[in-house]
Amino acid sequence: MKKIVFITLSLLLSLSFWNCEKDDICAEGTPVTPRLIIEFYDAGNPTVLKNVTNLRVEEFGTGEGVVFNESLEDTNEARYLSNGNKIAIPLKTFAEISEFDFKFNYGDATENNDVISFTYGKEDIYISRACGYKTIFNSTENSPSAFPVAGYWIQNIEVIQPNIETENEVHVKIYF
């Protein structure tokens, strides 16, 4: 009798492992909701990339900074600063507008803030049972489209690719 119970339990246990599917874990490298890719250019020479200095991008009205340096601790202010010519920022998946406060020379006496709004349509695409959905953004626009007014550090914004489906291309160019 003990042998029959042991064999039955062993059989049930082995069948439970056999029924697991490989897609129960979202694989590394699976496409996720893409971020908005922005490159910065020299307003005087629009073909030349230009590095920003201590740029902090915050969700407008919340003070929450976009993380550019994930390897740094949450308490380290440099985690939220960019000093290159290219950044990636997340758009809201639960709304059709995202507003950001771009703070140039953050923490310096010459700090200059510009608020940029992006409006877009969104579409949720099913990836798999384990990964769920990803959102792509369509017909992305910015408002206002230019900053020629004195006091703004951004001189112009150009949407290059209005449909944001991957992070493999530049979507927006900012001239300053």
Q: Number of DSSP helices? A: 1
Main beta sheet, described? 4 strands, mixed
Rg over alpha carbons = 23 Å
**How many domains, in number, for the residues?**
1
Strand content: 25-35%
Fraction of residues in helices? under 10%
Give the SSE order as H and E letters: HEEEEEEEE
What structural category characterises the helix and strand content? mainly beta
Give the overall silhouette. elongated
Count every beta strand, where a strand is a DSSP E run of 2 or more residues: 8
Distance between the termini: 83 Å
- Overall pLDDT metric: 86
Low-confidence stretches: none
Reading side by side through the largest sheet, how are the strands ordered?
Answer: 3-1-8-7
Pfam families: DUF6452
Keywords: Signal
Signal peptide: 1-19
Give a description of the structure:
InterPro entries: DUF6452. Keywords: Signal. It holds the Pfam family DUF6452. It contains one helix and eight strands; from the N terminus they run H-E-E-E-E-E-E-E-E. By secondary structure, it is mostly beta strands. It has one domain. The strands form two sheets. The protein has a four-stranded mixed sheet with strand order 3-1-8-7, with no helix packed on it. Strands 2-4-5-6 form a four-stranded antiparallel sheet, with no helix packed on it. The model has no long low-confidence stretch (mean pLDDT 86).
Question: Which features would summarize this protein structure in a list?
Answer:
176 residues; 4-stranded mixed beta sheet; 4-stranded antiparallel beta sheet; 8 strands
